[in-house]
Each structure stands twice: as C-alpha cells, then as structure tokens.
Amino acid sequence: MNTRSWLFFLVKSVILGVVVASVLLVLIPDLRNNQPLSLSWFNQTPRLSAPMSFSAAINRAAPAVVNIYSTSYDTRPLLYRRQPVERTSLGSGVIMTRSGHILTCYHVIQNAERISVILQDGRVMEAQLVGQDPYTDLAVLKVSDENLPVMPQSEDPDTRVGDLVLAIGNPYNLGQTITQGIVSATGRAGLSNYVSSANYADFIQMDAVLNEGNSGGALVDSNGTLIGINNANFKTLDSQRRIKDVAGIFFAVPYALAKRVMDDIIAHGRVIRGYLGISGNEIIDQPGILVTGVDPLGPAAQAGIRVNDVILKIEGKPIESAFKTLDLVAETQPGEELSFELVRDNQKLQVAVRITELASS
C-alpha cells in the first residue's frame, strides 16, 4: 500500500468513527454524561404512549350537569282516611345559561311540588319551573346563584353517525357517572318532533348506557361540547305483552331542538308551534303528500283541504318529505298564511291556509 492510499484509508476511518460516535451520543444520552454503557440498555422496554383519555372533555362539561330531585305527594286510602305519601323522582339537568336556566326532561319534574338541584361542587338550591314542553319531553328550570358553571355549547354540533359520545348523569343516585358510546343514528331537529312510544326517528340514537336518573343529563362529544339531552332507552313488548327495555339502544334530544325549545319557553313560557290539522303519507315514487285525515275544526278543514287531496307545494316550494312539511308548518307563526298547491280529482288547486297555534298536550 503506497503512502497516498494509506493516508486516504486513515482519513476515511477517522471520519467514519466521528460519525458513529456522534450517532451514539444522540441515541444514548447517558454517554454524554460520562455514564458507562450497560448491556441492560439494549433490553429496555419501549416507552408507552400516553393512554387515551377524555378527562379534558369531562372536566369541561361535568360541572354544568346537576342532580335533580323532584318531590310530589300522592294520597292513598289507609283504612278510613287518606294518607299523603311523598314521592321523590330522580333525574339530571344541564345548566345552559349564566343566569341559571337548566334544561331537563319533563318526566323528571312532572307534577312536582318541590324541585331541588345539587351541583357537582356540592351546592344545593331550590329550582323554579319556568315551563315545559311535553311534545319533546323537555322542561326548563331556573336557579338563582352566582358563579354557575355553564355547559359548553356550539350553534351547530354537526353530530354524525359513528361519533364518540359521553353521557353524564346521576344513575340510581350513585353520584355523577360517565358512560361512553357511539352515535348509531341521527335525526332532524325541527319543532314538529316529539317523543312517543313509536317515534324515535328524529332523535340521536346511541349506545352510551342510560339508567334511571340519567334522564335530563348531558350527551357531549369528545371535546365536552353538548350535543343532546339524554332522554330514554328503547322499549318493546315481550311475548306476554309486557314492556321491557332493550339493551344498547338509547336516545337523546338533539341540541338544536332542545335549544330552540328552551329559548321559546324562556321568552314565552311555552313553545309556540304552528298547526295545520292534517295527517298524511308520502307517496312512493311520486312527489307530494297524500292527505289521509283532516281535523274538522282545524285550519286545513276551514280552508277546504280534504281527505285524498295530494299536497304538491307549500309557498311555491315542492314537497320534499312529510317530516320537512311538518317542520315548515310547526315553525310558522300562528296567524300567518301559507299557500298550498294540491291535486284533487286530477285538477290542481291553490288553497290559502291561515295557520293556528298547536295546543299544549
């Protein structure tokens, strides 16, 4: 090997050694502190990533979820006199405003003579009923206190099927409890929606478990933002025609609907809905709604709409669905007039209907 080749080999080796040493110093911090390299270093367990947690979301939302205890009195026969019996119903509620308005379920406070609210921080206070809406099973309460926590809210939560959700409430009076699930179906949020044993199509359906006491609590997304008011679990009949709960199917009133109901109750003491006075079905493969029933005292009958008429347009806009038609009517102020285009005996007619207010149930 000549001198030139030997020098080239030496320089190359030095450069390689410096590179390797630099890499080792970067990868093994102990070497930079003059710590000897132990063989145990090669057997170190890989560092685990932080566990998934929704504690931040719960910390945002949970303080605004309250326990509700409503007291009512029944009288039952006891020998030759009637003995009053005190009954306490358990539920949950959500603080929606700084001024102390609380959303809960109507069935939680129905017929209550006294309503008590307990905050997460231990404060206990009496609540006053502002108003209720049996159609959506919602009620608004009011408490008076300072520094009340308010539930995080968004004008458009954009709840989608597959979203992870967290239900916050007080099941069986165990104290505030969190359950987790995903959204399995969503509906609309118009004022024509209502709760009944046969109609959950317009609500948020999810599998976050709800038990007695969860009603009126908060359904929040993974950021802790309110998306619904927990309401009920699905029920069906067994072979003996007895009502039974169905596991894994639970419902919540969507935020947009709950907020609109609350705003109406605060402003007017009730929810104002327009009323048309018909029942109808969508027609398969054909636009329009077939009128199947007409309230003889309702505004539709007074305007001349009859059974078997087919409604094609309202205010010049084609009918998209029966649900959207009901929403349009429900959101029309009583006293306003709507123009209906319909077909009767193969003839098109224009009918003007003056909408009235839907009576409270």
TrEMBL record:
PROSITE patterns listed in its UniProt record: PDZ (PS50106)
Family matches, as SMART domains: PDZ (SM00228)
GO annotation terms (biological process): proteolysis
Gene3D superfamilies membership: 2.30.42.10, Trypsin-like serine proteases
GO MF terms, alphabetically ordered: serine-type endopeptidase activity
Signal peptide (from-to): none
Transmembrane segments: 6-28
Domain PDZ stretches: 265-346
Pfam families xref list: PDZ_2, Trypsin_2
Keywords assigned by UniProt, alphabetized: Hydrolase, Membrane, Protease, Transmembrane, Transmembrane helix
Family per similarity comment: Belongs to the peptidase S1C family.
Full protein name: Trypsin-like peptidase domain-containing protein
